Amino acid sequence: MDKLYKDKEWLEKELIQKSPTQITKEQGVGLHTICRWIKKFGLKIEYHRNNTYQNKKWLEKETKIKHFKQIAQECNVSTATISLWANRFKVQRVSPLQYSARDKQYLLDHPDTNVKILAKKLNRSIQSICQQRSRLGIHKIIVRLILDNDQFIKMWNLYVKRECTKRDIANYFQCSMATIDAKRRELKIPQKIAKSDIKRDKNNNIVKKGCCKCNKLLLISNFCDKYNKYGNNVYNNICKKCATQYQIKYRRNKNNWAKLLYLKAKKRAKKKNVKFSLTIDDIQARLEQQGYQCPVFNIPYEMDKYITDNKFRKGLSRPQKSASIDETIPNKGYTQNNFDIMSNRANDLKKDGTLDEFEALVKYLRVKK
Ligand SMILES: [Zn+2]
């Protein structure tokens, strides 16, 4: 398709009949592009005053009897358009049709009815209904619908512990989620701490941060930090204590071992620059075959030693009962035919020794004894 808008005469002709928005729709380009060419040719945009709502006097007259939503519906445009032109003409928005005594009475008579249904019945927006209700003091009546305070506190505590959702509480009391929040405010229960809750000092440094697991606002020294790929310093979403507890729980679960071993071995292979073609399923099958214990010493693996063994942290020794993946023939890569799982103790003893060497060693030790 030819780029017609680059022709000055064509653009000038089009602008007499259409608005720039219409031209962009027909040409399939952005508004910015058309506006740039209009500016380049030094053309003027004519505002089309054909539409009724673009008449100041008419709009002034209408807003006195109807609200924006009604006018918009009659003109077959969005409410935002009417609002825009009202702002342009500086037409003051008269409080959208004062609520009549009958309407007010209707709201007072139906305090338990859903706001959506009320909005449809009175032909107003939900926001308007809510405003009017709060003026009439109805919102307090709704909160009193939740009569069982003890049950509410019990459920809220469950929500804080992440054992149920806010939606569950709302379903239990048959009310909206906003009502739940209003009730919480009434009982003066503090809000649930989120991971995004941050307190800063005058120099804009983070001082305190919320832990979303134990729901406490803690000093920033309680959080691990690291640099992300953009070079920014970011903090963990859970505190060190919670992270440790999570790690221990994760590592005690036998079903996670295959993945743990897989990730560790993959990292090592990349560092040593050797082939790696194992899958998690291969490792899982081998672990099940071994019965989750060391095939050399027949002791069950203890994977969570990584956390609890302080010796390991200082680099003195690695947890001896923990499992690790080993290359049967060293430096041949971690492939399906060249891998073995054994405890770290067995692996440390084996290292890169050959069978002949071990036989010689055993012979020597036997004689010495
Ligand atoms: Zn925590």
Brief overview:
The chain is mainly alpha-helical and 369 residues long.
Topology:
Blueprint: H1 8-17, H2 20-27, H3 31-41, H4 56-65, H5 68-75, H6 79-88, H7 101-109, H8 115-122, H9 126-136, H10 139-143, H11 149-160, H12 166-173, H13 177-186, E1 198-200, E2 206-211, E3 216-219, E4 225-227, E5 233-235, H14 240-252, H15 257-272, H16 280-290, H17 305-308, H18 310-313, E6 323-326, E7 340-343, H19 344-350, H20 355-368
Antiparallel strand pairs: 1-2, 2-3, 4-5, 6-7
Describe the structure.
- The protein has 369 residues and is mostly helical.
- Among the domains are: 4-41; 145-186; 199-240, no CATH class; 253-363, no CATH class.
- Helix content is 51%, strand content 7%.
- The chain is built from 20 helices and seven strands.
- The strands form three sheets. It has a three-stranded antiparallel β-sheet with strand order 1-2-3, with no helix packed on it. Strands 4-5 form a two-stranded antiparallel ribbon. Strands 6-7 form a two-stranded antiparallel sheet.
- Helix 2 (20-27) packs across helix 3 and helix 5 packs across helix 6.
- The longest helix is centred in the last third of the chain and has 16 residues, at 257-272.
- The model has no long low-confidence stretch (mean pLDDT 81).
- The protein binds zinc ion (ZN).
- Residues 211, 213-214, 238-239, 241-242 line the site of zinc ion.
